[in-house]
Specification:
Pathway: Protein modification; protein ubiquitination. It holds the Pfam family Skp1_POZ. This protein is mainly alpha-helical. 69% of the residues lie in helices and 0% in strands. It contains three helices and no strands. Helix 1 packs antiparallel against helix 2.
């Protein structure tokens, strides 16, 4: 997103709570760190992180999925 100049663009996130946005940022940062590491062990750890990340209540998981769908559509359409 930063490389495509979205860092200076406002991306509206309707009905997103701070709890959900915090989790999205945490997830994104973790994935960026692993991509920078280029380490096979880090990529295996990422699978574990992803599995643990989705072990949340159904409402939180639903809201996380809505944010990801919205962001993907927003970036695709713009």
């Amino acid at each position: 997103m930063i490389e495509d100049d979205y860092a200076n663009t406002i991306i509206p996130l309707p009905n997103v709570t701070s709890k959900i946005l915090t989790k999205v940022i945490e997830y994104s940062k973790h994935h960026v760190e692993v991509l920078k590491a280029k380490d096979k062990t880090a990529k295996e750890d990422l699978k574990t992180f992803d599995a643990e990340f989705v072990k949340v209540d159904q409402s939180t998981l639903f809201n996380l999925m809505l944010v990801w769908i919205f962001l993907n559509l927003y970036l695709y359409l713009n």
